[in-house]
């Protein structure tokens, strides 16, 4: 991909494609609308998923009785094995009609629908990472709270959350990468419009969906090169996220 992307850097074509709209009738094949669409879908999905995942992890690790905690954890682990296409069909047949009727938002295939279902896709992984982070807190810390007569909520707020912030950040980072790399949810639920969205009820096209949908027969055209521009942006962003997670992991090991 790096070799095929090299022509993009001749004459600043890469940056031109990033900031241009997609208008094939005028010979313009920019990916700016896809960048905005991807950013909105991914950030909204993290906003929906984060508080739910943090609460679920607290329930499993601190608040719930052991029997319910183990049962709930197994349900979450089972959800990680469900194929993304199943989530996509659930979104098409249940979530999209609900959004359409509730908000009277066109076909219902828009940024809101895609972000809600993407939040459901990334949540199991995020919950597992948060839970493991909570459970890695030294037992002497939590025992000290118990000895002082602190409640489970006080233990969570004053000990567990401050001590596991690196694990929480790692979970968020990995979930961000997972959401950016997902193709099916955005392809099935976002509507795939190539215009810059004005609200969460507008349709949008993600970078991964654009790679799947563009059909270019000419290997030397800007239309074909736009696919590699999308790939290069995703690759660069994912690499930065992995470096960040590795750095946080090393810092956590130093603290132990």
SSE layout and pairings?
Elements: H1 2-5, H2 13-18, E1 22-23, E2 28-29, H3 32-63, H4 66-79, H5 84-103, H6 111-135, H7 139-147, H8 152-163, H9 165-181, H10 184-189, H11 207-213, H12 222-255
Antiparallel strand pairs: 1-2
Description:
It is a single chain. The chain is an all-alpha fold. 73% of the residues lie in helices and 2% in strands. The chain is built from twelve helices and two strands. The chain has helices at residues 2-5, 13-18, 32-63, 66-79, 84-103, 111-135, 139-147, 152-163, 165-181, 184-189, 207-213, 222-255; strands at residues 22-23, 28-29. A two-stranded antiparallel ribbon has the order 1-2. A hairpin with a 4-residue loop joins β1 and β2. The two termini are 39 Å apart. The mean pLDDT is 86.
Question: Can you give keywords for this protein?
Answer:
256 residues; two-stranded antiparallel sheet; mainly alpha
Instruction: Report mean pLDDT, rounded to a whole number.
Output: 86
Q: Give me the side-by-side strand order of the main sheet.
A: 1-2
Got a strand count? 2
Strand proportion, as a percent range, falls in: under 5%
Q: Categorize the overall geometry.
A: globular
Structural class per helix/strand content?
A: mainly alpha
């Amino acid at each position: 991909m790096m070799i095929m992307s090299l022509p993009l850097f001749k004459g600043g074509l890469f940056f031109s494609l990033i900031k241009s709209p997609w208008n094939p009738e005028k010979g313009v094949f920019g990916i700016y609308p896809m960048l905005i669409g991807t950013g909105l879908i991914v950030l909204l999905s993290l906003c929906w998923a984060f508080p739910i995942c943090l609460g679920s992890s607290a329930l499993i690790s601190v608040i719930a009785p052991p029997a319910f905690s183990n049962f709930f954890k197994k349900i979450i682990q089972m959800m990680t094995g469900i194929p993304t296409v199943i989530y996509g069909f659930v979104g098409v047949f249940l979530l999209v009609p609900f959004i359409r009727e509730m908000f009277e938002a066109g076909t219902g295939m828009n940024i809101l629908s895609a972000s809600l279902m993407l939040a459901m896709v990334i949540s199991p992984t995020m919950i597992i990472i948060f839970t493991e982070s909570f459970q890695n807190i030294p037992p002497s810390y939590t025992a000290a709270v118990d000895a002082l007569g602190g409640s489970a909520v006080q233990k969570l707020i004053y000990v567990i959350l401050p001590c596991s912030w690196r694990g929480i950040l790692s979970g968020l980072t990995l979930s961000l990468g997972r959401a950016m790399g997902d193709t099916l949810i955005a392809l099935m639920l976002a509507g795939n419009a190539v215009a810059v969205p004005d609200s969460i009820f507008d349709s949008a096209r993600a970078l991964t969906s654009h790679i799947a949908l563009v059909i270019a027969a000419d290997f030397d055209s800007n239309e074909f090169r736009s696919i590699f521009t999308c790939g290069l942006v995703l690759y660069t962003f994912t690499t930065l996220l992995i470096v960040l997670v590795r750095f946080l992991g090393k810092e956590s090991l130093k603290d132990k």
